[in-house]
Amino acid sequence: MGFEMKAEKDVLELISSKNQCKAKNSNPNSVNSPHNNKKKNIRKKSKKMMMTWRRKKTDSSPEDEITAVRRLFNTCKEVFSDGGPGIVPSEDKIQQLRQILDNMKPEDVGLTPTMPYFRPNAGLGNGSSPPITYLHLHQCDQFSIGIFCLPPSGVIPLHNHPGMTVFSKLLFGTMHIKSYDWVVDAPMKDPKTRLAKVKMDSTLNAPCNASILYPEDGGNMHRFTAKTACAVLDVLGPPYCNPEGRHCTYFLDFPIEIFSSEEDDVLRGEMGKESHAWLQERDDNPEDLNVVGALYRGPKVDED
Ligand SMILES: [Fe+2]
After folding, report:
1. 161 C-alpha vs ligand 1 centroid, how far in Å?
2. Where is the composition biased (Basic residues) (predicted)?
3. How far is the CA of 92 from the centre of ligand 1 (A)?
């Protein structure tokens, strides 16, 4: 609401300054008319005052008036400017973006927990996830920004982020995250089943810092489970892109002892069953994925 009022004020200022120009041009004789000297002096004074007022306004405006999402967008442009698949931004840039996200709040993107996206869906009761809403904020070749709105018990099934660096900021609520990375050089169980190591298995409570995952580590495969209604702001660099081979793959995770063999007994002995699992590729559209898109209505993100 505050954002709209500011925009309206800017529009009024613009109309006002255009009207001043029109008034000046409507009577060309007034500038040279001798009996207008007094008026000219008054005009000069008021013009001077206006210029001073405008200068003061300009001096205080640049960084103070930028919205949090616009700051996020500008930072993403900088951080991912020379990015690409498998390219991790420098540590400086990562910290720069992390700091912006760490400080972001639901109101910065126009969200409150009372919105319909977050209402518990009492009618389900069949164990499947209630609908999750995705709000698209921006996408370009370098990065994408979006928000997942999860009602209580909402689940985003286990999925990967090929070649990407991903920042996830829990804006409000309580959410469990389980994430994995591949075990490099481990034997494949079959062409669709591979050994992974648990990176994270914990519950986050907002307000909290942003989580970051990388192309090869940091928990590139993850599952989100909403313990309460929650909202997650996601920044992906680069974004998913099917033509470029970066599509989202879903997985099921199985304890390592479920596929038992002598070879696996050796693996279990070496790695410990608590921290490892088999990840098996699923169909592209798993039946427990229930995400619907909705129009983002928060403060304006990009320059369009
Ligand atoms: Fe994800």
Report:
1. 7
2. 36-57
3. 23
